[in-house]
Amino acid sequence: MSAPETASPSTAETQPRIDLLGYGLAFAGAALFSTKGVFIKLAFAQGVSVEATLALRMMMALPIYLVILAMLLLRNTKLRGMMTPGKLLGAMSVGALGYYLSSYLDFAGLNFVSAQYERLVLFTYPFFVLLFGVWFFGDRMNWKLVPAMLVSYSGLMVIFAWNLSVEPDGLVLGTLLVLGSALTFAFYQHLAKRQMLVLGTMLFTCVGMSTAAVLAIGQSLVVDGPATYAGFTPNIWGIGLMLGIFGTVLPSFLLNGGIARIGARATSATASFGPVVTIVLAVAVLGEAFTWVHALGTGLVLLGSWLFARTDRQSRSRAE
Predict the structure, then answer these.
(1) DSSP string, 61-108
(2) Distance in angstroms (rounded) separating the CA atoms of residues 30 and 270
C-alpha cells in the first residue's frame, strides 16, 4: 500500500498535467480569431456583401496556404505519400465544414447582430464539443459541467433580452445563424483532431483551408460577379488583408496546433479570452455600446466558461 502512495507524487512531477505550449497556442488562436468579427463589420460598413467579405478573407489567405502546402510536400516525401485520394477527400470535407460552412453562417449572422453578441453566441461551442463527444465519439458525459453551461447560457439570455427590447430586427435570425456556426465548428473540432492524427497539423490545415477558400471564392463569383471586385477601394482590400492574415491564417495554425496537443475539448475551453478581445475592439473601433447589461451578461458567460474549463480539467486529472 505504501509503495504506490510514495510513487504517486513523483509520477505527478514527471508527468505535467498541463501542456503549457498547447494551451498557449489555443489561447493565441482564440484571441486572433476574435478580431474577425470587427474586420467583418468594417467590411459590411463599406457595403461589401456577406459572400464577398468571406471571399476577400479567403483570397488573402489562400496563397499563403498553397505556398506552405507546396513547401511541405517538396521537403517531405513521406507527406506526399500520405496524400491518397481517401485521406485528401477526408481533409477537404472536414475543412469545408469548419472553415467554409461554419464561417459562412457566422458571417451571415453578423449581418444582424453586433460583434460582441456574435462572439458570445459563438462562444457556446465548447458545450457542443462536449455534447457531440458524448453523442457521436464515445466520450463520457460529465454531469458536473451542466451548471457551468447553464451559467453561460443565462448570460446569453440577459444580452438577448436586452437586444430584443432595443434592436429586435433580425436578432432571432442572426442568433440562429451564429448558433449554427457554433454547432458546425464544434463538430469540426472532433473531426479535425482525427484528421490531424493522420496527416499532421500543418498538412491538414493547408488542405482544409484551401478547400474552404476555393468554395468561398467560387460562391462569391457566382453571387456577386467578378466585376464586383474591380470596384473595391484600397481600404476594402486592406480590410480583407487584415481579415485574411490575422483573422484566418495565423489563428488557424495556432488553434489546430492547440487541438493536436491538448484535444478538442480542452482547446474549446480556452476560448474564454476571445470575447474580451472582441468587446474591447468592438467598443474602441466600431463604437458599439457596452452597458451594465452587457457587463452582466458577459460576466456570466465568462464565469460559466471558466467553471466549465476548471471542472473539466479537474475531472480529467482525476481520471488519469
Answers:
(1) HHHHHHHHHHHHHHH-HHHHHH--HHHHHHHHHHHIIIIIIHHHHHHH
(2) 7
Predicted confidence at residue 165, as pLDDT, reads 78
Q: What is the pLDDT of residue 305?
A: 74
Quote the DSSP letter at residue 139: P
Say how far apart CA 107 and CA 118 lie, in whole Å.
Answer: 10
Confidence (pLDDT) at 157: 82
d(Cα 179, Cα 119) in Å, to the nearest integer?
10
Which pTM value belongs to this model?
A: 0.78
pLDDT of 32:
85
DSSP state of 169: T
The low-confidence residues of the chain, meaning pLDDT below 50, are 1-16
CA distances, 274 to each of 5, 35, 122, 124, 200 (Å): 41, 8, 10, 12, 26
Per the document, the length of the chain is 320
Helix axis angle, 115-122 to 292-319, nearest 10°: 20
Q: What is the dihedral of CA 44, 205, 120, 177, to 10 degrees?
A: 60
